[in-house]
Amino acid sequence: MPALILASITTAILAVVSVFVGVSDVSISSLISGGMDGRAMEVLLISRIPRTLALVLAGASMAIAGLVMQMVVRNRFVEPSTTGTSESAALGFLIVTLLAPGWPLMAKMGVAALFALGGTALFLRILRVVPLRDVLMVPLVGIMLGGIIGALTAFIAYRANLMASLLAWNMGDFSGVIRGRYELLWVGLACCILAYIAADRFTVAGMGKDFTTNLGLNHRRVMMLGLVIVSLVSAVVLVSVGSIPFLGLIVPNLVSLLIGDNMRRTVPWVAIGGAGMVLACDIVGRLIRFPYEIPIAVVMGVVGSAMFLYLLLRTPRGAK
């Protein structure tokens, strides 16, 4: 508990730093001198606070989605971006944008979630057919499936002259987040709470179908609940801020190395770690070429790929 409190305080400090980092002058002195009607207060309320909340919500929910995905698939090297889930959500969002551009954003998010659910179910179906002799075959199959779905999405976007929109969806970026354009991410928080409530069921499901059935749980229902959580989170984050790579892969693995695989214990850690990592990467992206900004997907891609290689190449330790 003391370590968890320390991690929460560190994440809170990063959130405070994020509020005061940017091109516009938002500082304690400018807030006091400008008053409630000043420009600094306006930027704080309309842009900085919503952006920081979006960073925390997206980071926590995507990390939890990766944890749930790893429990459902029983593989440590999978997350929504390595199983075709994110690519399927982008395909659904593109199709509904073409066929029903006047639909509200919530309806488009629902369609994207349904496509994400279908893509994840297809991935699991393929895993039942393909002989898996190595643990790395699972993410390899997911990456191949994601590549096929992504190619189809790119072809449709090219024919419809929507390549710029597709690039924006696939490139996570929080620079355009303002008040009124991030509220869908609260759905991700609800999914995090649901994952915590069902944490024991996911832990048991991660031990296999036979073991789950012997304990009296419906393995199919637990799997479906996990897929729904992953699909909703992937769709919400994609629609709101774009895709964030490696986050759901790195954070759960690092937490697992530190405190084990009991999901009831790891959910708070994964949520705090995901939020903290996204906040840190976003601050780096805003400062490294100040006053210009590097999208968080680029920073997260560099950091996440390096950590992924470390997880792949690290020397296995003996069982304790």
In words, what does this structure look like?
The protein has helices at residues 2-19, 28-34, 39-73, 85-99, 105-129, 137-159, 163-170, 185-197, 199-205, 209-214, 219-240, 247-259, 263-287, 296-313. The protein has 14 helices and no strands. By secondary structure, the chain is mainly alpha-helical. The model has no long low-confidence stretch (mean pLDDT 85). The protein starts with a helix and ends in a 7-residue tail after the last helix. Helix 12 crosses helix 14 (296-313) and helix 13 (263-287) packs across helix 14.
Could you tell me the number of beta strands? 0
Low-pLDDT ranges: none
The run of helices and strands is: HHHHHHHHHHHHHH
Largest beta-sheet details: none
Q: Which bin fits the share of residues in helices?
A: over 70%
How far is the first residue's CA from the last residue's CA? Answer: 23 Å
What radius of gyration results from the CA coordinates? 20 Å
Which percent band covers the strand fraction? under 5%
Structural class, from helix and strand content?
Answer: mainly alpha
Task: Identify the overall geometry.
Answer: globular
- Average pLDDT level: 85
Total number of helices:
14
